[in-house]
What we know:
The chain has 171 residues and is mainly alpha-helical. The chain contains 7 helices and 5 strands, in the order αβαββββααααα. The two termini are 27 Å apart.
Amino acid sequence: MGGGMTSSGDFCATCGLCCDGTLFEYAHLQPDEIDAAMASGLEVGEFAGEPGFAQPCRHLCGTRCSIYVDRPKACRKYRCAMLKRMETGEIAAEQAAKHVAAVRSAVTSLNAEMLPGVTIRQCREQLEKAVLANEEIAATTRMKLYFGVLELLLDKHFRSPRQRFFTGMPS
């Protein structure tokens, strides 16, 4: 592969979208993991009626997990749609890296439009509430556009069909 990524582990270590708050708002914990998660410094709470911790994960250093050996079960088991496509040979590592770069570019554009201190999760929540209530929100047109581009990229390349933001998105 010409000095690039050679394994799915290499891909994950250069991506981190599942841990940095871009792809998910939280990760679930099993009941027997709560004490260890709290001891590691994770802020454990209730998400969708289950125990978990908010993203971005405080143990993410750049794109790598600082508690990789002791990470929660949800983190151990998770495999994004892009990773699964790489593992089956459907997509080359170099192309997967380009998709990660496109998402990072969309995040950078979106962050430039958001107020300081506002997270992607907060932006997503605000936009979802406005859409559900059929209300206009105080957001720039560019912010809405960048958010839409980000969600489309995540839906197309990284989320499974049941995780998609735009539920009508084809596989």
